[in-house]
Design goal:
Elements lengths: L5 H22 L14 H5 L1 H27 L13 H30 L9 H29 L2
């Protein structure tokens, strides 16, 4: 292990790469479209805010988790302060969840805005962009979930 938390970072990067690879292969050869049934602007009216709200919820829970865990360790007994390095990997996973979630929201909105401004351009929303957006969103969610599972295992050892 290079430093405390390295397994968490490696897990987050590997998870993102794996999800992107699967999403890209699954979407390859299919058209990547935003609007259901070809109704221009429908995604923004019905689905965009739902995706962004889910991402905001995960971000809020992840940020609160970091604050709570670090704060609890700093205000605990003196011996507990040194045990924070034992939770470095789950903390890095939670931090990567926040990074992936923010990037997901940014790229989703930018991709959709580009699609709105270029409705007839087949390259406005490509399979590569689609798979990137999916992998960022699912990586944020999975990193958050895996970090809690990892934290439970580390805390009960």
């Amino acid at each position: 292990m290079l430093f405390p938390g390295f397994p968490g970072i490696a897990t987050a990067i590997g998870l993102f790469a794996g999800i992107w690879f699967i999403a890209y292969l699954k979407g390859k050869g299919r058209p990547a479209v935003f609007d259901p049934q070809g109704q221009h602007g429908e995604f923004g009216k019905n689905l965009l805010h739902i995706y962004l709200d889910i991402a905001k919820t995960v971000l809020g829970l992840a940020a609160g988790s970091i604050v709570l865990l670090v704060g609890a360790m700093n205000f605990g007994p003196a011996g507990a302060r040194h045990s924070l390095s034992a939770f470095a990997s789950p903390l890095f996973l939670v931090a990567m969840s926040i990074i992936y979630g923010v990037l997901f929201m940014i790229f989703l909105v930018l991709s959709y805005e580009h699609h709105l401004h270029h409705p007839n351009d087949p390259d406005a929303y490509t399979v590569l962009r689609y798979s990137r957006n999916q992998s960022l969103g699912f990586s944020a969610l999975f990193c958050f979930c895996i970090s809690y599972i990892w934290l439970i295992f580390d805390a009960t050892r």
